[in-house]
Amino acid sequence: MRSGAKIGIITGVSIAVLAGGGYGAYSLMGGSGSGSSEKKPRTVVADPPSAEQAASGAKDFLAAWASGDIAKAASLTDDPTAATTALTSFRDQVKPSALTLTPAGPTTQQAFASATGTPTPAKPTAAASATPSATGTPGAGESPSASATPGPTGVLMGFKARAEFEGTSRVWDYNGFLGVVKMSDNTPAVHWAPSVIHPHLSGNETIATQQVFAPPSTVVDRNGKPLQGASLTPALISTLQDNAHKLLPPDPNKDQDAGSAVVINDPAGKTAPDKLFTIVEPKPGKPFKVTLDNTIQAAAEKAMTDLGGKSGSIVAIEPSTGQVLAFANAPSNGQNRAFTGMLAPGSTMKIVTSAALLEAGVNPDTVVACPEKSSNPVAIPNDFPGAFPNNTLQQDFMVSCNTAFINQGLTSLKPETLSSTAKDVFGIGLEWKTGLPNADGKVPPTPGSKDEQAMNYIGQGKVQMNPLAIASITATVQSGAFKQPILVPGLPQQAAARQISPDVAAKLRAMMNATAVGGTASQVMAGITDNAGAKTGSAEVAGASTTNSWFTAFRGNIAVAAEVQGGGHGVDAAGPAVASLLKAAGGR
């Protein structure tokens, strides 16, 4: 930043933090008060500062911050190290050319709650005085009698701020908040928290000036037609566009259309960016193309509507590219469970278990008995009667025999094999950047527990998936290589550690085709078995009387997976939904 520019920004503090995080010793040294040459740590005390101390503490801090003296401003807080880091980051990342900060005196928790969009804490009870926050009310997560140890009290102060930026006459006016506590040397200090930078800022979030783009004039599908779909909510599309601009390689032509704004971001990408102030307006947006196909998207939306009120989700992927062709949720305006849901996938997980067994030397025609109960300590039965001692692995896959996969898994696989196969071959656990927030599945290793291994082999236990992950697994089998799912053409795609061998992929396709032709999926897949394969699944959920329905299939260059909560067997609810998309896609 150029010399002489004043530094600052709107600030705020979550006063509830004062009781939980501001009581203790910091790297601030003061006199001992006893004539000794030794210095004692300067600490926050329980007593509140006087009105005069609170006013001077806020005034001195704001003056130092606005003048650009970060070292002095940080020294006037109860955590100089954190304050120095945050204020320096603000100076370097937000880059205001000037800022005026004006103390506004004491304020209320209600005003702060309104600025942050958080509920106002309840009024304190008589017991609440044991652990008061800066305003005498319980801190976040505290019960009125949470602790018998006295905590610090403080005074909530407000201020007015005006930020200016080079190259524009626009100014950013805002209200800030900070809490002032009393230190052991009888001086005031600003209690440091991320919200001192801005009332909306918390945790590991960052604040910076960055490029922003106008909403697209239209959002179009892969064929250039205006995108349609009830599950494609404006919030999802806005998040997708914002993420795409961050993830796509730099485009000089696109950068010419960019504006700039002060934005709060979540580094993990789990929440949408919070645009606080537009410095330069972006030029009108151009059409924004996504990978979705309107025809398949319409079929996906109808499939979810046809569930008759049950919750569920569905995803279709193009195996040759990893591009998502469609996704839909029921309800359409709820959680994007197709991408972020985490549920036990049931027997659709046997695709991964089969891949691990095939790599371990078991073949589709290897005899793998299907007994009535498994051999692990807590024996697991099948959901069909009888034992089939002469079944082959392929036959076990076709009828979805739990006991066969458990027993052969315990015999042929190491405890960590299923987890490593899922990640190294199918990309599960690589933290995909699809363009939208997503959870790409979880297959934890199970050292030391045969019962946990047994449950993982059949898609229960601690295995968690969503249709995005299962559709990707199926797409990997169909194409012979993992292609990370994406929603915008050109987004970077992570590669798996190793490619599935052509031999194993061919055997898996044959096993899935046999299941579609003559196994548990045959009824649903009737008439669409050419160049196709499928796997059914049902997952038990604690406390639920009906299993969740899962189904996944491929046909040509499309792979689809669906789940229906409380839908029963795979062919009962999820199967018809998947089949409807395969039919809509034709022979792609």
Mind sketching the topology for me?
Layout: H1 17-21, E1 25-30, E2 40-43, H2 51-67, H3 70-75, H4 80-93, E3 98-106, H5 109-116, E4 154-164, E5 171-182, E6 188-190, E7 206-212, E8 219-220, H6 234-247, H7 252-255, E9 259-265, E10 274-280, E11 288-289, H8 294-305, E12 312-317, E13 324-330, H9 337-340, H10 350-359, H11 393-399, H12 402-412, H13 417-424, H14 450-457, H15 467-479, H16 502-518, E14 532-539, E15 548-555, E16 559-564, H17 574-585
Helix pairs in contact: 8-17, 10-12, 10-13, 10-16, 11-16, 12-14, 15-16
Please explain how this structure is put together.
The chain is an alpha+beta fold. 29% of the residues lie in helices and 18% in strands. It has three domains: 1-27 and 45-118 and 153-203, Nuclear Transport Factor 2, Chain: A; 212-289, no CATH class; 294-585, DD-peptidase/beta-lactamase superfamily (Beta-lactamase), CATH 3.40.710.10. Strand 9 (259-265) and strand 10 form a beta hairpin. The protein starts with 16 loop residues before the first helix and ends with a helix. The protein is built from 17 helices and 16 strands.
